[in-house]
Amino acid sequence: MISILIPVYNYSIVNLGNELLMQENKLDVPCEIIFFDDCSTNEKIKKENQLFCKNNNIAYHVSKKNLGRAEARNSLAELARYEWLLFMDSDVFPVRQDYLKKFILSISPTGQVYTGNILYRRDVSENYKNNLRWKYGIKYEENCIKNDNRSKYLYLKSANLMVRKKTFKHNFFPVLKYNYGYEDTMLGLSLEEKGVKLEIIHNPVYHDGLETSQVFLNKTEEAIRNLAELIREENNLCKRIKIIKLYYLLKKLNCVKYVKYLFEKNRNSMKKKLLSENSDVRIFQLYKFGYLCYLLAL
User: Fold this and answer.
1) Within this chain, do residues 231 and 194 fall inside the same structural domain, yes or no?
2) DSSP characters over 161-190
3) Which of 160, 182, 209 is the last residue of a domain?
4) Domain that holds residue 90
5) Quick check: helix, strand or coil at residue 233?
6) Are residues 84 and 201 in the same domain?
């Protein structure tokens, strides 16, 4: 009935795999777990993952080249046997001990897509709390749905998403120019445009694999480059995204070059602040918008 599909890149899947096996054993419906190693470079972790899966009869596929987040998930869907596809990330962990059962019980005859929310652990060290990724997750990702009346389709989470297989066959993750960023948002907007039913359920996962602030900033710049490409391509769907709506407003007011000038002038000092122990997610939001204007005003 359900195929659990998890892309992996240089991350241990042992803890998550053990939890899913424990929950799977309590289900009375067919279930499979498939990991897809997207050409990991850490051979030690890769071998440990392969051994764990071999010992537990779990499928572990290794790609010969790095496909990126969207293509890896699309490839996983091709490997799945069952009617429902549950997409997770390798660095998340179910909050509930009945996480799988909760998804299954949520299925309705007309249901097509279900997404859960992302949480961040509070019982972490003080050094961990200086991490920009952790601060951003607490401030924006945890509260985005309940604090915003925008379309729920904007909050589809590829790390916690269940899709009916026949629905997914017509709605793959879009492969954007850069590997990281906004493919789940664009999938959500595409589903909304097509009238595909999306339900948000309270079935959270913890995001545990937090990268360093520098890596997160680098990934964010890559994601913003995706947005810039979507704007250049005149993609109408992307105009629903908040940061792009703001861009078009400033463009109408002929202010984009001014924002670009301010960003160039303050970029280094903003980066220094964001990578410090006193990083501020409000500055991070300004940095993202400034970088978008910088790219589009070149």
Assistant:
1) no
2) EEEEHHHHTTSPPP--SSSSSSHHHHHHHH
3) 209
4) 2-209
5) coil
6) yes
Residue 151 has pLDDT above 80, yes or no: no
CA 244/CA 186 separation, integer angstroms:
13
16 and 78 part of one domain: yes
For 222-238, the pLDDT digits (tens) are: 999 999 999 999 889 89
**Lookup: tokens for 227:** 């947005």
Domain CATH for 194: 3.90.550.10
90-132 pLDDT, tens digit each:
999 999 999 999 999 999 999 999 999 999 998 877 777 788 9
Dist. CA 198–CA 93, nearest whole Å: 22
Spatial distance between the Cα atoms of 135 and 141, rounded to a whole number of angstroms: 10
Co-location of 272 and 185 in the same domain: no
Domain count, the chain: 2
- pLDDT per residue as tens digits for the range 238-261: 999 999 999 999 999 999 999 999
Q: Of 186, 161, 2, 168, which is closest to residue 78 (Cα–Cα)? A: 168
The span from the CA of 156 to the CA of 182, in Å, is: 10
Dist CA 182 CA 240 (whole Å): 12
